[in-house]
């Protein structure tokens, strides 16, 4: 009996002595799809792999959209704006895992592998695990890139076909997380290339220990990490889909940080002496677009009228449950060049009616409103939003029928322009205004269907195209400000809200910074 | 005897083939293709879309696709999940133990309570207790179980002040999977704290999933007991002065159990249906939740494989019930 | 209704309807079930008159108001409001309409199709029977909700498609019952006699055999309404049933799940309505069975 007790005590001493092992449990909302940043399409997957396990050439400073050097130490841009020469960081080690022991440090081969897997169709890894590189393709990088070359072990030269000022920020995006070419070669040799997205090896702060679907993802700190050692040695994501359960677990100290709280609970959390809430405006927007190719939405007055018919404050309360900021411009205010002078349409049903009459619809008309079938941060409840819109528009005589499909079908039909009015949103990837103003609202996006307002305005287009070819930031800022004014006047969208990201945590948690891109980052976090 | 066994087993073959055909066709008819779903809000360029369709074989004629499918099924290959790129069978096997654990607990709960309530109700027929049992049983039978789960969470949170439970075990416990059954594994690992946590997480889902079978078993037991209690030999035993407890325990119960056992066996389909809802409400990491999610994500192979395996399991259990019943009861064996 | 005529021919008692009512009304449960079903039906029919508000009217000043007896509630919204300020009472009343409609339509379609298939199987036997019954076996093999989900996934979410899905799921029961009854009935003397007398198959089917297997079908149908309501609500709960803004109870429940911890009424009341309606139909079905089928009464 006594001996057992002694052994127990010794074990206890040992664990506390062996380097302050700190465990942090993060209650996450759902399963990651995979651990392959190139394939990931959700911020859950980015949180699980790209932001813990991997690094990129450049990274956004946590909590902002400022681009800082990471695995690349510096770059030079040629005078014509087409050739980027990157100096790579020396002495960065890949993680040593159960199945992989790196023999060399990070070098130019790894950068080449990362690009070529997504780019070259004859690359042995191209088809692995479905091979749908949706971000790489969405940015049309395959066509924009001319070459990615190794100059020496620590120098890479990237050439693009045309000067493109937002290009560098692409290198900070998660899908360009640097993978180990050595690990890839080893897996290929073993005949198990699919493991590259299941048993990841990166250079980041945490290494994957194991993943149990619907239960947990477990990480351990990477002892070879090139930045200062993470303070948290064991990181656990407890997968907890129900928001009220996550809160209960936080209160019970079963987890120390939780994802996506129920916005209605925020006040109560703030009052709890053991808890605190960090918040930050997210880099996204929820909107309803008018199909400007169809009557009556080809008439600007109709679009303006339906803007005025909506009480955005009530939408914010009912749909976003208060967790958002009313949106005026398509870009959130944290993005540079945000135009504060643009005025939003007021809630004014009487003027809306007058405008409709002026446009030739004194008795309103019939239309449809497409309801987003899934919950997204930029639109937590599409159906409820549609119901509200139905009643607001009804008040000015516009009868809207709610239409909805399963997500894939919804998006496909939306891209084809079958709708009249359409709910969707956009989550920015880079914090560059171009990512919103050109990628979603430009004329090229009408062709791909991403511009579901199908709005192609010559004046607007010339502004945003000029801005993306200019490298002077002050000049670009001015162009984007003008573009926002045109956008508001033309009203192809009803801009609804920029969701606010709330991250509730225990008071013991220190230095937590919210990623405006929607992921959760634990490098640098500490606990008292 | 052998002919009976083989005869019954052979009957399953066309049903199985039909099942594969059905799952295959049903799943192909679903609108919206999986490549689009994978691409999400950002979309996918048409050339790449065609490439991926080809890679997954979605562009071949349906009949060819079916032929490939059935050949693979017979080799135990149910394809890869489109979302996770892992083998469907592998994912199923990893999640199935949790469903079994929940279902077994629910069945035990239902059988123990249901038998007891049914017997007592029959013995004291028309008493207040009998009426109570019948009313409760009717309520349980009519219960929308997705609502019942939410109600229990609400009640326990507000009245007993229990935190709402979710999942199978508190997160701080990690039990290395040996058998896959968390309860057994935690005992094997000698981790009593984890075991206790597992039990605590099991209670509410077990009650929710067990409610309908409980109601059915209570009703069945009561009526079977009433029937047996009215038989001549029981009356004789009673007349002979055998104590009521012995009459019930020794004679009546044994004979009343046969139909009840059959009913329990046939409840497995009901259990799986219930598990889909219960697991969704309590975030239980089992196959029910997995399938509900697969439908939302249009994960064809998961849907196909999952439906096929669950259907086969129901078939196998029904066969087993049928066979045991036939073995116990020769009259059935010789009929047909 | 065929129900009554069938009782007449089946029992051949002096006052069959009265005998039926006598036996039916002997059970308090059956009467209670009938009472509840009738009142819900009345409320459903007169929902427009009874409901204080439109089920679709939103009030942006009154999101998630509690029922009148709780603090903050008022008699303007007697049972409170939902997340976008619609009157719960009005939605529940209009929901009764939808649920009854779903139950009745599902039973009507599955009964018609099931009886037809069952009759065909029972009369023709042979290959047709084998094929039909195998298909029914397969449908029965799949867990009912899973089958319904797959069907809705194909057809797309919506009330009509949910109705179709539930119909397919319950169909095999009617086919089996009819077929078994037909086979049993066909071996009876009077059928053999009429056959010898040259009665045609169709006449036999509909005028001799069908009325005699009506009793189990009626019982199954009344119990089937409760199954249909429950299954359709489960589909609604998974977001695959009736779509917003229709006030279907299961959909209402799913829509308000996130408020379970702070607005009990939006979750509790629709469920309570489902439970009450389903229970009433089950009681009614039990009562009908006892009254129509003396053989089963002992149980």
Automatic annotation (TrEMBL), chain A:
GO cellular component, one term: ATP-binding cassette (ABC) transporter complex
Classification via CDD domains: PBP2_DppA_like (cd08493)
Family in the record: Belongs to the bacterial solute-binding protein 5 family.
A Pfam family recorded for this sequence: SBP_bac_5
Annotated signal sequence range: 1-21
Superkingdom of source: Bacteria
InterPro entries (alphabetical): Peptide/Ni-bd, SBP_5, SBP_5_CS, SBP_5_dom
GO biological process: dipeptide transport
Compartment list: Periplasm
Principal location listed in the UniProt entry: periplasm
Residue ranges of every copy of the Solute-binding protein family domain listed in the record: 67-445
Stated name of the protein: ABC transporter substrate-binding protein
Keyword Nucleotide-binding: no
Molecular function in Gene Ontology: peptide transmembrane transporter activity
UniProt keyword annotations, A-Z: Signal
From TrEMBL, chain B:
Chief place of localization: membrane
Keyword flag Transmembrane helix: yes
Subcellular location field: Cell membrane
GO cellular component assignments: plasma membrane
Keywords in alphabetical order: Cell membrane, Membrane, Transmembrane, Transmembrane helix, Transport
GO molecular function: dipeptide transmembrane transporter activity
Pfam families associated with the record: BPD_transp_1 (PF00528), BPD_transp_1_N (PF19300)
InterPro entries: BPD_transp_1_N, MetI-like, MetI-like_sf
Limits of the ABC transmembrane type-1 domain: 96-321
Transmembrane segments: 9-30, 102-124, 145-163, 256-282, 302-328
Membrane topology: Multi-pass membrane protein
PROSITE patterns assigned to the protein according to its UniProt record, in alphabetical order: ABC_TM1
Secreted listed as a keyword: no
Recorded family membership: Belongs to the binding-protein-dependent transport system permease family.
Protein name: ABC transporter permease subunit
Organism: Limobrevibacterium gyesilva
Lineage: Bacteria, Pseudomonadati, Pseudomonadota, Alphaproteobacteria, Acetobacterales
TrEMBL record, chain C:
Spans traversing the lipid bilayer: 30-51, 98-125, 145-171, 213-242, 262-285
Domain ABC transmembrane type-1 per the UniProt entry, residue ranges: 96-285
Bilayer topology annotation: Multi-pass membrane protein
Gene Ontology CC annotation, any one: plasma membrane
Transmembrane helix is among the record's keywords: yes
Biological process, per Gene Ontology: protein transport
PROSITE patterns, sorted: ABC_TM1
GO molecular function, one term: dipeptide transmembrane transporter activity
Pfam families attached to this UniProt entry: BPD_transp_1 (PF00528), OppC_N (PF12911)
SUPFAM superfamilies associated with the record: MetI-like
Protein origin, superkingdom: Bacteria
Keywords for the protein's UniProt record, in alphabetical order: Cell membrane, Membrane, Peptide transport, Protein transport, Transmembrane, Transmembrane helix, Transport
Location in the cell: Cell membrane
Similarity comment: family membership: Belongs to the binding-protein-dependent transport system permease family.
The name this protein goes by in its record: ABC transporter permease subunit
Organism expressing this protein natively: Limobrevibacterium gyesilva
Phylogenetic lineage: Bacteria, Pseudomonadati, Pseudomonadota, Alphaproteobacteria, Acetobacterales
């Amino acid at each position: 009996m006594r001996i057992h007790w002694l052994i127990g005590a010794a074990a206890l001493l040992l664990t506390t002595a062996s380097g302050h092992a700190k465990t942090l449990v993060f209650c996450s909302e759902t399963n990651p799809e995979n651990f392959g940043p190139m394939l990931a399409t959700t911020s859950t997957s980015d949180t699980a792999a790209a932001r813990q396990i991997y690094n990129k050439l450049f990274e956004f400073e946590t909590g902002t959209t400022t681009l800082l050097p990471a695995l690349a130490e510096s770059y030079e841009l040629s005078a014509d704006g087409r050739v980027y020469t990157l100096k790579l960081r020396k002495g960065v080690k890949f993680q040593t895992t159960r199945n992989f022991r790196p023999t060399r440090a990070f070098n130019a081969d790894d950068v080449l592998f990362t690009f070529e897997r997504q780019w070259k169709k004859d690359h042995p890894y191209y088809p692995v695990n479905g091979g749908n590189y949706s971000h790489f393709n969405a940015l049309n990088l395959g066509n924009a890139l001319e070459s990615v070359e190794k100059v020496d072990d620590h120098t890479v030269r990237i050439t693009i076909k045309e000067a493109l000022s937002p290009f560098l920020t692409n290198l900070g995006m998660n899908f360009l997380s640097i993978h180990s070419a050595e690990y890839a070669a080893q897996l290929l040799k073993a005949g198990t290339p699919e493991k590259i997205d299941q048993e990841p090896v990166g250079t980041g702060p945490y290494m994957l220990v194991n993943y149990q679907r619907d239960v947990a993802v477990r990480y351990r700190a990477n002892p070879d990490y090139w930045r200062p050692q993470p303070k948290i040695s064991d990181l656990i994501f407890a997968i907890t889909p129900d928001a009220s359960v996550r809160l209960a677990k936080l209160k019970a100290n079963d987890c120390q940080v939780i994802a996506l709280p129920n916005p209605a609970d925020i006040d109560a959390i703030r009052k709890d002496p053991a808890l605190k809430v960090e918040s930050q405006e997210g880099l996204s927007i929820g909107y309803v677009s008018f199909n400007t190719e169809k009557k009556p939405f080809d008439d600007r007055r109709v679009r303006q009228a339906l803007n005025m018919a909506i009480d955005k404050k009530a939408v914010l309360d009912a749909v976003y449950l208060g967790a958002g900021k009313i949106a005026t411009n398509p870009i959130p205010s944290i993005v540079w060049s945000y135009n504060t002078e643009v005025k939003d349409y007021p809630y004014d049903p009487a003027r809306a009616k007058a405008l409709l009459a002026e446009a030739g619809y004194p008795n309103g008309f019939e239309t449809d409103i497409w309801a987003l079938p899934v919950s997204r941060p930029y639109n937590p409840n599409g159906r409820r939003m549609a119901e509200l819109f139905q009643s607001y528009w009804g008040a000015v005589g516009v009868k809207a029928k709610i239409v909805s499909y399963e997500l894939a079908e919804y998006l496909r039909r939306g891209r084809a322009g079958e709708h009249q009015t359409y709910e969707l949103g956009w989550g920015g990837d880079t914090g560059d205004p171009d990512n919103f103003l050109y990628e979603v609202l430009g004329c090229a996006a009408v062709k791909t269907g991403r511009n579901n307002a199908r709005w192609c305005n010559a004046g607007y287009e010339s502004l945003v195209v000029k801005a993306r070819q200019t490298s002077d930031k002050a000049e670009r800022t001015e162009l984007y400000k003008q573009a926002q004014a045109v956008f508001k006047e033309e009203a192809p969208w009803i801009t609804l809200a920029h969701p606010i990201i709330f991250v509730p945590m225990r008071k013991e948690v220190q230095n937590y910074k919210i990623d405006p891109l929607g992921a959760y980052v634990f490098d640098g976090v500490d606990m008292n | 005897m052998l002919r009976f066994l083989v005869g019954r087993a052979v009957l399953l073959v066309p049903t199985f083939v039909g099942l594969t055909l059905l799952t295959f066709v049903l799943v192909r008819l679903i609108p919206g293709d999986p490549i689009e779903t994978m691409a999400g809000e950002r979309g996918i360029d048409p050339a790449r879309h065609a490439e991926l369709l080809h890679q997954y074989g979605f562009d071949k004629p349906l009949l060819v696709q079916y032929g490939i499918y059935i050949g693979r099924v017979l080799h135990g290959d149910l394809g890869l999940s489109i979302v996770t790129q892992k083998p469907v069978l592998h994912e199923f096997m990893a999640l199935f133990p949790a469903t079994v654990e929940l279902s077994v607990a629910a069945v035990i709960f239902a059988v123990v309570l249901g038998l007891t309530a049914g017997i007592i109700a029959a013995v004291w027929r028309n008493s207040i207790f009998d009426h109570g049992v019948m009313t409760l049983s009717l309520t349980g039978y009519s219960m929308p179980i997705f609502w019942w789960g939410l109600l229990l969470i609400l009640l326990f949170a507000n009245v007993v002040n229990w935190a709402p439970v979710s999942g199978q075990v508190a997160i701080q416990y990690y039990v290395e999977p040996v058998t896959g059954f968390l309860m057994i594994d935690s005992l094997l690992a000698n981790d009593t704290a984890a075991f206790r946590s597992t039990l605590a997480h099991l209670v509410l889902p077990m009650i929710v999933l067990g409610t309908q079978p409980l109601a059915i078993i209570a009703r069945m037991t009561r009526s079977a007991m009433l029937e047996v209690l009215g038989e001549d030999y029981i009356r004789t035993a009673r007349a002979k002065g055998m104590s009521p407890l012995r009459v019930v325990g020794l004679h009546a119960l044994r004979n009343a159990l046969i139909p009840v056992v059959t009913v329990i066996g046939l409840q497995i389909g009901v259990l799986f249906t219930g598990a889909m809802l219960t697991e969704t409400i309590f975030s239980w990491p089992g196959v029910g939740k997995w399938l509900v999610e697969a439908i939302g994500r249009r994960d064809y192979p998961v849907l196909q494989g999952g439906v096929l395996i669950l259907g086969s399991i129901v078939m196998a259990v029904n066969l087993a019930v049928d066979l045991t019943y036939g073995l116990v009861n020769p009259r059935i064996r010789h009929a047909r | 209704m065929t129900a009554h005529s069938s009782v007449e021919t089946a029992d051949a008692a002096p006052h069959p309807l009265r005998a039926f009512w006598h036996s039916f009304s002997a059970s308090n449960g059956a009467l209670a079930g009938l009472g509840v079903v009738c009142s819900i039906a009345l409320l459903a029919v007169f929902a427009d008159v009874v409901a204080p508000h439109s089920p679709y009217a939103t009030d942006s000043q009154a999101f998630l108001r509690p029922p009148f007896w709780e603090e903050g509630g008022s008699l303007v919204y007697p049972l409170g409001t939902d997340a976008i300020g619609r009157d719960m009472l009005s939605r529940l009343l209009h929901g009764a309409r939808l649920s009854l409609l779903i139950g009745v339509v599902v039973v009507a379609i599955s009964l018609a199709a099931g009886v037809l298939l069952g009759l065909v199987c029972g009369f023709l036997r042979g290959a047709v029977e084998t094929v039909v019954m195998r298909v029914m076996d397969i449908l029965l093999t799949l867990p009912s909700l899973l089958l319904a989900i797959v069907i809705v996934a194909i057809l797309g979410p919506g009330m009509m498609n949910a109705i179709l899905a539930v119909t397919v799921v319950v169909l095999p029961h009617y086919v089996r019952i009819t077929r078994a009854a037909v086979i049993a009935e066909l071996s009876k003397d009077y059928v053999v006699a009429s056959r010898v007398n040259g009665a045609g198959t169709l006449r036999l089917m509909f005028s001799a055999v069908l009325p005699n297997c009506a009793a189990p079908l009626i019982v199954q149908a009344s119990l089937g309404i409760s199954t249909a309501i429950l299954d359709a609500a489960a589909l609604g709960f998974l977001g695959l049933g009736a779509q917003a803004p229709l006030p279907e109870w299961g959909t209402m429940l799913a829509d308000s799940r996130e408020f379970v911890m702070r607005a009990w009424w939006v979750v509790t009341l629709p469920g309570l309505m489902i439970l009450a309606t389903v229970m009433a139909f089950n009681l009614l079905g039990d009562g009908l069975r006892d009254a129509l089928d003396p053989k089963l009464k002992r149980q």
